[in-house]
Amino acid sequence: MKQLSEFVKERRKEVNLTQEEFAERSGVALTVIRKIEQGKTNLNMDKVNLVLRMFGHELAPVKIKDIDV
């Protein structure tokens, strides 16, 4: 499965946008784009979804069932 950081970076480059341009168009701060592309794990889901909506995607919580711990 492709990591979020790889997906966003590859798609951003496909549309030929700098991180700054992409941040402006998606409505988030440049630091949000940088954190996503660096693979940081402490991200605001609402901000991530603003970015992903640029590509027609969205993240949502998934309930994990029947996990043996």
Protein described:
The chain has four helices and no strands. With 69 residues, it is mainly α. The protein has a single domain (4-53), classed as 434 Repressor (Amino-terminal Domain) (Orthogonal Bundle), CATH 1.10.260. The two termini are 23 Å apart. The model has no long low-confidence stretch (mean pLDDT 91).
What labels describe this entry?
69 residues, mainly alpha, 434 Repressor (Amino-terminal Domain), 4 helices, 52% helix
| Total number of distinct structural domains | 1
Shape: elongated
CATH superfamily: lambda repressor-like DNA-binding domains
The CATH architecture term is: Orthogonal Bundle
Would you summarize the structure shown here?
Helices cover 52% and strands 0% of the residues.
Secondary-structure map:
Elements: H1 4-14, H2 19-26, H3 30-37, H4 45-53
Helix pairs in contact: 1-3, 2-3
